[in-house]
């Protein structure tokens, strides 16, 4: 069975060689230049320690300077998996999510037909190029000169001209023995219809040859010289050779330039790409007369993780940008995004460069906005949110935007940013905000958590406890519990070995707590940790962190066993509180996705119940304290009350 060349080309486009090779090697990142598609690793085909195996992503080939192994993506799978060519293609097709083409006995014939069409297109490109130098093309040359295109640029992009004659190209090709069906199949001629003879598709137009990533001429674009023409720009029709949605204008050269570190810029049309290239922005591409497609986005992301979409500054340009953003939203993932460069109103890249020069364009690219900015502007620009109903409508629209993001991690970060923008819009942070591990009073927030009631002390709390910082809400309960655990270990360093795994796994709410935990983990058991901590962060800072005044050490911590129970209960409380918070946040995310049901509501209620139980009973799932003796019931609160971390005042 012979596979169609178009299928193999599509497979190469969807899978980079480096991604396939990465399954078998460990890249040497010191030698690798990822931006250029230049990868190095120890060879998977022979034993070596140095990185002599080279992968060139742009060309799609690998080569080992040690054993001289070489090949493309299909050959690599054949060698490493010990399979034949067809099996290698099947493996890669499964990875790319592409169905294998049905067995076609005429596949070889079709492939030969496409090769012949490519030859015809190449002949036409050369013929169009020659016509630009004729007397009939003087107006076209004047136009190109007014647009500022240099002779070198005309040659680089092979710009040509189609004369104002109905069958000039048709006669030129048939005179060379080219059959009409091939000329029509290449999209260059229109068959006889309505009593009219066959004619050229491109008449009295400036011609822009279109090449695929391999450099083959696959189609053409034509700009009308007649101002009354029905279509200002005309592209080749869909053919066996030309698929508009799977290619980009200037793809091959732009890929090379992007590999050298230039930003990949997506412009609207041919002249924009040419103007950008001439101004030094060589990694410029454009869609082929249609809106950007998913396949074109995949091509762009294979070249660079963050292409720049250059938008004309008018309303039509904004709408085009939003269409691209809506298309990309469900396809994006971490490290794969778009940025939008907004040009001044009424100008495209060609206009801006001719009016103000390349630096003006560079400034626009440098100020490119993330996609979230464009989406947010669409939802709020020119709108009033002076009523609860309008604000609720905005929230519903934003939730719909979030639901379209498939990557859960990216969706979470988009939610964070939308929540921040919403808070800025209304002047206050919305109710659905969650504390972060910053240790500051003005903590950032996320939209996936709804706070419960203000923390209150347990019913059995003493008068001293009700006046403590923890009970009054003037301090973070998590931070106070962390202080309890750290204080117990400072007073009894012999417990360090027992609690080392807890310290290593802990997610501290404050940086100074994390620093103290690091000191404890790096210390030897049995030494005076109190003095060591003070020596590292300063006596005054330690006293400020752990409490004020000079009170005696709690009786609970005077014994090692009591300290062990104290530290363990504090850590259990923290685990219960944070586990409940996590459960509640996850449930709220489900709720925000409009999938709330009884199970979700039960999760919310259960998470709240467990958190409240943890606050009352030291991490137990029971609704109240157990049957421990009174001393064990109160020892943790007593620890908070008496600030056990402080030294006994010397007499």
Structural class: alpha+beta
Domains, number:
4
Number of strands: 15
Biggest sheet overview: 5 strands, mixed
What Rg do the Cα atoms give? 34 Å
Strand order of the largest sheet: 12-11-13-14-15
Mean pLDDT, as a whole number? 77
Poorly predicted regions are: 430-475, 547-555, 592-597, 617-651
Percent helix: 40-55%
Number of helices: 28
- The rough form would be described as elongated
Q: Tell me what portion of residues adopts beta-strand conformation.
A: 5-15%
N-end to C-end Cα span: 96 Å
EC number: 2.7.7.101
Region (Disordered): 432-474, 608-633
Zinc finger (CHC2-type): 43-67
Subunit structure: Monomer. Interacts with DnaB.
Task: Give a short overview.
The protein is built from 28 helices and 15 strands. With 651 residues, the protein is an alpha+beta fold. It has four domains: 5-96, Zinc finger, CHC2-typedomain (DNA Primase, Chain A); 106-242, DNA primase DNAg catalytic core, N-terminal domain, CATH 3.90.980.10; 255-425, Dna Topoisomerase Vi A Subunit, Chain: A, domain 2 (3-Layer(aba) Sandwich), CATH 3.40.1360.10; 463-642.
């Amino acid at each position: 069975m012979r596979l169609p060349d178009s299928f193999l080309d599509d497979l190469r486009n969807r899978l980079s060689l480096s991604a396939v090779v990465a399954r078998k090697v460990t890249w040497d990142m010191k030698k690798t230049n990822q931006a250029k598609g230049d990868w190095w690793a120890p060879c998977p085909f022979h034993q070596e320690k140095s990185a002599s195996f080279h992968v060139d992503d742009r060309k799609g080939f690998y080569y080992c300077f040690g054993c001289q192994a070489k090949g493309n993506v299909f050959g690599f799978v054949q060698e490493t998996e010990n399979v034949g060519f067809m099996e290698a293609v099947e493996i890669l097709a499964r990875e790319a999510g592409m169905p294998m083409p049905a067995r076609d006995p005429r596949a070889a014939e079709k492939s030969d037909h496409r090769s012949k069409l490519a030859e015809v297109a190449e002949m036409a490109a050369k013929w169009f190029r020659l016509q630009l130098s004729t007397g009939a093309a003087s107006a076209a040359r004047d136009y190109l000169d007014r647009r500022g295109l240099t002779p070198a640029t005309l040659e680089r992009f092979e710009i040509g001209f189609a004369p104002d004659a109905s069958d000039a190209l048709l006669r030129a090709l048939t005179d060379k023995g080219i059959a009409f069906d091939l000329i029509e199949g290449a999209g260059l001629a229109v068959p006889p219809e309505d009593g009219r003879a066959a004619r050229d598709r491109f008449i009295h137009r400036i011609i822009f040859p279109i090449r695929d990533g391999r450099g083959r001429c696959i189609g053409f674009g034509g700009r009308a010289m007649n101002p009354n023409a029905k279509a200002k720009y005309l592209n080749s029709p869909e053919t066996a050779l030309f698929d508009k949605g799977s290619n980009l204008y200037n793809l091959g050269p732009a890929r090379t330039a992007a590999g050298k570190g230039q930003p990949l810029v997506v412009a609207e049309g041919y002249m924009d790409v040419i103007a950008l290239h001439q101004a030094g922005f060589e990694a410029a591409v454009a869609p082929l007369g249609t809106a950007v497609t998913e396949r074109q986005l995949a091509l762009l992301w294979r070249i660079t993780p963050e292409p720049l979409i250059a938008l004309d500054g008018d309303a039509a340009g904004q709408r085009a940008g939003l269409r691209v953003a809506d298309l990309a939203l469900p396809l994006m993932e971490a490290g794969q995004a778009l940025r939008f460069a907004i040009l001044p109103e009424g100008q495209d890249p060609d206009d801006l460069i001719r009016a103000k020069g390349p630096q003006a364009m560079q400034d626009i690219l440098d100020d490119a906005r993330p996609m979230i900015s464009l989406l947010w502007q669409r939802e709020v620009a020119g709108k009033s949110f002076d009523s609860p109903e309008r604000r609720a409508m905005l929230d519903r629209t934003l939730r719909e935007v979030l639901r379209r993001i498939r990557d859960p991690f990216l969706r979470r970060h988009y939610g964070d940013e939308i929540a921040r923008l919403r808070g800025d819009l209304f002047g206050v942070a919305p109710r659905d905000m969650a504390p972060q591990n910053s240790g500051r009073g003005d903590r950032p927030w996320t939209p996936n958590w709804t706070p419960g009631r203000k923390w209150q002390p347990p019913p059995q709390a003493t008068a001293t406890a009700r006046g403590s910082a923890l009970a009054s809400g003037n301090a973070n309960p998590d931070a106070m519990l962390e202080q309890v655990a750290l204080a117990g270990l400072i007073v009894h360093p012999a417990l360090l070995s027992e609690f080392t795994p807890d310290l290593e796994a802990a997610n501290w709410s404050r940086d100074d707590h994390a620093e103290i935990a690091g000191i404890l983990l790096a210390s030897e058991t049995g030494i005076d940790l109190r003095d060591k901590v003070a020596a590292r962060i300063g006596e005054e800072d330690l006293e400020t962190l752990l409490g004020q005044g000079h009170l005696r050490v709690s009786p609970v911590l005077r014994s090692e066993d009591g300290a062990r129970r104290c530290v363990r209960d504090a850590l259990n409380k923290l685990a219960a509180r944070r586990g409940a918070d996590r459960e509640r946040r996850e449930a709220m995310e489900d709720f925000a996705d409009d999938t709330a049901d009884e199970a979700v509501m039960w999760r919310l209620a259960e998470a709240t119940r467990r958190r409240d139980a943890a606050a009352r009973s030291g991490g137990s799932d029971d609704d109240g304290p157990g049957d421990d003796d009174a001393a064990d019931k109160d020892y943790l609160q007593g620890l908070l009350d008496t600030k056990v971390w402080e030294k006994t005042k010397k007499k």
